[in-house]
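To start, one record:
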Amino acid sequence: MTYPKIWFLRHGQTVWNAERRIQGQFESDLTDTGIGHARTQARLLQPILPVAEAFHVSPLRRAQQTARIALGDLPYTVDPRLAEAHAGDWQGLLRDDVLRQWPERTRPDMSALELFLSAPGGERLDAFRGRITAFLSELSAPSVIVAHGLWGQAMRAHVLGLGWDDMLSLSNDQACVYVLEDGQETVLRAA
């Protein structure tokens, strides 16, 4: 399927990102570094904002904080389908504690996406992909999306036509803008 041009922003660093704590759909505020990430994204978006036609943001506070900085006063639509993967019983726990307490369900080299989707009581891959593809199927104009790292990884893999292994190898960076157009990805970074 072909999609309109997408500019994707992962929210800036949060307190829990810095602590290596699993957020999922729990809330955590941006750190000073995270505010700096959003300001960098705002600079990268300056030439893009006049040509983007739609702006979509996750309902979670860290994405909202990032959007207010990166998009300035532009109005945007909040869509619950843009929320991060739900990490079930592991939300709020430190990654190292999860690895230590659930060795039968985890391994030290697990990607964040694998970890979240393995959590007891968490969202499963089909459900996660389902809400991403449902959102994408409704995109009708060049759009800026402000959401989350794992959401962005799965969305980008879908748009690029990548399989599971390639999806897991996609970067998950903050302070940049991922540009998806015609089945290709480029990344805008500050000089």
